[in-house]
Amino acid sequence: MEEKNVVLSKEGNIAVITINRPKALNALNTETLLELNNVIEAVELDDEVYAVILTGAGEKAFVAGADISEMKNMTVVEGRKFGKLGNKVFRRIENLEKPVIAALNGFTLGGGCELAMSCDIRIASTKAKFGQPEAGLGITPGFGGTQRMARLVGMGMAKELIFTGKMIDANEALRIGLVNSVFEPEKLMEEARALANSIALNAPIAVRLCKSAINRGIQCDIDTALMYETEVFGECFATEDQKEGMTAFVERRAKNFKNR
Ligand code: CAA
C-alpha cells in the first residue's frame, strides 16, 4: 500500500490526523500539504466527527517546519505559490467547523509552529520545543507565523521569537500562552483524547458556533463582535440540541445530542 504523509483515523466522534514523515521530522513539503488539505476536507464533510486531534508521527517531532530541501532552490514565483498553499490549508483548519486540538509531541518549529497556531487549542509534551527559525534561513515565516504569533502571545513576545529564531521549551511556551497545558510524553495523546471527548460531549452545533463567534469576533470591534454573538446565540434556538440540552437539564437526566 502507498505510504501516506498524512494519516486519518476515527475513534468514535473524534478524528485523529497524524503528519507522517518521521524520517524528515514531519517536515511539510507540497505533497504533505496537499494530503493534509484532502484530509481536512474529508473531516469537514464527516458529520460524525465532533472534534479533531492533530499530531505528528514518531518520538521527535510534531512538525519541524516547511521542507527546507524543497524550498532551497525555489524562485520568487514558486516561493509565493508554496506560501499561498500553506496559508490556504492552515486557514482551512482555522475555519474548520469543528474544534481542532494540536497535540505537540516534539519539535514544533517554523511551519510546524504555524500549523499548531492555526488549531484552536494546543497541548504539548514536556519534550516539545517551539520556535520560528525562518530568519536564520534567510526567509520570513510564510504559513501565518508573522500574523498568528502576535495575536496569540502579543507583539513583543512574537517579535522576540521571530527576530531571534530562538527555540523555547514547553514550560516557556506555557508561560507565554503559546500552549494551554503540558504533559509527560506518554500522557499526551491520552490527555488530547480526554479533552476532545469532553468537547464532543457538548452540542456540536453550539461548539461550532462558539468557534466561529470567537474567531470572527477577535478580528473586529466589540459592537460588531457582540452583534455576531447575538446572531449565533439566536441561531442555537433553531436546533434540536438546544431543546434536548435544556429539557435534559430540567428533567435531571443525561442529555443525548444529535448534531441537529
Ligand atoms: N525540512 C526538511 N528536512 C528536515 C527539516 C525541515 N524543516 N527538519 C528536519 N529535517 C530532516 C533532516 O534534514 C534530517 O534528514 P536526514 O536524516 O535525511 O539528514 C532529519 O529530518 C532529521 O533531522 P536532524 O538530523 O537535523 O535531527 P536533529 O535532532 O539533529 O535536529 C532539529 C532536529 C533541531 C529540529 C533540526 O532538524 C532542524 O533544525 N530542523 C529545521 C528546523 C527549521 O528550521 N524549521 C523551519 C523551516 S522554514 C519554514 O517552516 C518556513 C515557513 O514558515 C513556511
From TrEMBL:
CDD domains recorded: crotonase-like
Alphabetized Pfam families for the sequence: ECH_1 (PF00378)
Coiled coil: none
Keywords, in A-Z order: Lyase
InterPro entries the UniProt entry points to: ClpP/crotonase-like_dom_sf, Enoyl-CoA_hyd/isom_CS, Enoyl-CoA_hydra/iso, Enoyl-CoA_hydra_C
Top-level taxon in the UniProt lineage: Bacteria
UniProt keyword Lyase present: yes
Family statement drawn from the similarity comment of this UniProt entry: Belongs to the enoyl-CoA hydratase/isomerase family.
UniProt-listed NCBIfam families: PRK05809.1
Identification of the protein by name: Short-chain-enoyl-CoA hydratase
